[in-house]
Amino acid sequence: QVQLVESGGGLVQAGGSLRLSCAASGRTFRSNPMGWFRQAPGKEREFVATITSSGGSTYYADSVKGRFVISRDNAKNTVYLQMNSLKPEDTAVYYCAARSRTYVSGSAQLREYDYWGQGTQVTVSS
Known about the structure:
By secondary structure, the chain is mainly β. The chain has strands at about 5, 10-15, 20-25, 35-40, 45-50, 60, 70-75, 80-85, 90-100, 115, 120-125. The strands form 2 sheets. Strands 2, 4, 5, 6, 9, 10 and 11 form a 7-stranded mixed beta sheet that branches. The protein has a 4-stranded antiparallel beta sheet with strand order 1-3-8-7, with no helix packed on it. Helix content is about 0%, strand content about 50%. It contains no helices and 11 strands.
């Protein structure tokens, strides 16, 4: 069982930066591939970024590639999303998710994740 709590959201101007954190409980965290997703009002939840259990490989949605960086610190049971050059269209509730530890790699598919946090709001003003 993995429990996830996101933090770090807020209001920022376009061009600014935020760093989201996702604190995980559970002894198996370092074995779980992790992902970040987001959901804007009236839209479906969409993939943002994913990282392997070791942190050695990452993958991003085209819309955030070059601006966002996903990382993890397994000693702190935490995964991060550094968001730079933010745009108004990045406004959404951001969720972190954990995939089963039977996998090494993450996924861009929502259905592949077993555990979800409650989300943190990110609002980017123009």
